[in-house]
Design a protein that fits this description.
By secondary structure, this protein is mostly helical. The chain is about 65% helix and about 0% strand. It is built from 21 helices and no strands. The N and C termini lie far apart (about 90 Å). The N terminus is likely disordered.
């Protein structure tokens, strides 16, 4: 009897709402396929109408999706809503995305990304510009921060005691870091177009996925280098030569993972060139006692964060036959990284001492940066791609802490 009662009342409930009834009829056919709707004496209070207004009439367009914060969908940290969002796709196929806990993402491309990949590029840039912005990783600013911080450290160290660093130089090097990082990513994707489609994290990048042709990528590279030349020409002659020589490192770095297990060390030589260039741009020459320890500290820092980053791809690297320090160190990774971390902090202390940063703020900041590095190394789960990516991205704060210490130390000198 209870079952009969529920059946009758559920049928009356469905028949009272034509829109809901018609939407469910392919799955739950009613005896009367064309019911005559009965007037609702109080339509504004109808639970069905309220539900339709708030859900069925809501369109998950790209503009509406902007109301979702990307942080809410980041690496499975938001519980069930992350899994709900993973099933929504802006692509025509509507294929649900793989759980982000299984992968740390740094996709450079995919013109029609899924919900988790939506960024300001998809919301604000013209459709034709989006692949180029993704090729330059403009939606992934961490690379620009990691390239810019050694420049900022060096420029601030080169400032006169008691004075702020040259704001114009900071702006020039910040813009240069953005352009050079984008050019480096473009070179990397051009040289790795045979590898990227085989790696889960990189297969949707614009060139690997075919959204951009290699010729388009090469043309975009020329445009970026031309803008970078405009930055370089505003420096002194010695700095122009020093800056131009860094292109040799930039162009050759993507090949290193095919040749050696130490591409992260080569990346360190490339990414921290600004430690030499920043001082030269301000002072017109190099002071080896200050800039060389600073440069070495940056190389060791890069070995820490990029080895952690490389653990995301170690399974794919083994399949395609490329090398990394993550594969070289294996189960001893944390011991190796601890050694590089100690060398990084020691070199920073030596550089600051030689630069006469006698004030306490620098060394307090150095202790805080040391604690941040220790936290990264000993808490990272090297078997979890998402956690590796989180620790990698956190290095922007390491750079910021150290910059603040150098600035305060210089002002108090």
């Amino acid at each position: 009897m209870a079952a009969i009662w529920r059946s009758r009342h559920s049928r009356k409930f469905l028949q009272s709402s034509p829109s809901l009834s018609s939407s469910l009829s392919p799955f739950f056919p009613l005896s009367n396929p064309n019911p005559i709707p009965k007037p609702n004496p109080n339509p504004t209070s109808s639970p069905i109408k309220s539900f339709e207004r708030t859900y069925f009439d809501y369109q998950f367009s790209r503009e509406n999706l902007s109301c979702f914060s990307r942080e809410n969908f980041k690496f499975g940290q938001c519980g069930s809503i992350c899994r709900f969002g993973a099933g929504i796709s802006t692509s025509s196929s509507g294929v649900a995305e793989k759980d982000d806990e299984d992968r740390g993402r740094d996709d450079g491309g995919g013109e029609r990304p899924k919900v988790q990949d939506l960024s300001w590029i998809d919301l604000y840039l013209p459709k034709q510009a989006r692949p180029y912005a993704r090729l330059a990783r403009l939606d992934k600013p961490i690379g620009t921060w990691l390239l810019a911080w050694p420049c900022m450290w060096s420029i601030t160290l080169a400032a006169n005691p008691g004075h702020f660093p040259d704001i114009k130089m900071l702006a020039l090097f910040g813009t240069g870091a953005l352009l050079l990082r984008g050019a480096g990513c473009t070179i990397n994707d051009l040289l790795d177009q045979d590898i990227d489609p085989k790696v889960e994290r990189t297969k949707l990048r614009p060139i690997a996925s075919g959204i951009l042709t290699p010729f388009q990528g090469l043309s975009f590279l020329g445009f970026q280098l031309l803008l970078g030349l405009g930055i370089l020409l505003q420096l002194n002659n010695d700095s122009r030569i020093l800056g131009a020589s860094s292109l040799l490192l930039v162009f050759s770095y993507p090949l290193m993972k095919r040749l050696t297990f130490w591409p992260q060390a080569y990346l360190g030589l490339t990414f921290n060139w600004g430690a030499l260039l920043g001082w030269s741009a301000v002072r017109g020459s190099l002071d080896p006692a200050i800039v060389f320890p600073l440069y070495i500290s940056g190389v060791c820092w890069t070995l820490v964060y990029d080895t952690i980053y490389a653990h995301q791809d170690k399974e794919d690297d083994l399949k395609v036959g490329v090398k990394s320090t993550a594969l070289r160190f294996g189960d001893s990774t944390k011991e190796w990284l601890s050694g590089f971390g100690i060398a990084c902090i020691s070199s920073l202390a030596l550089s600051g001492f030689n630069a006469d940063l006698a004030g306490w703020p620098y060394y307090v900041a150095l202790m805080a940066a040391s604690g941040h590095l220790t936290w990264q190394i000993w808490t990272v789960d090297l078997s979890c791609r998402a956690d590796c990516n989180r620790k990698f991205v956190s290095n922007k704060w390491f750079g910021a802490i150290l910059f603040g210490g150098i600035l305060l130390g210089k002002l108090s000198s």
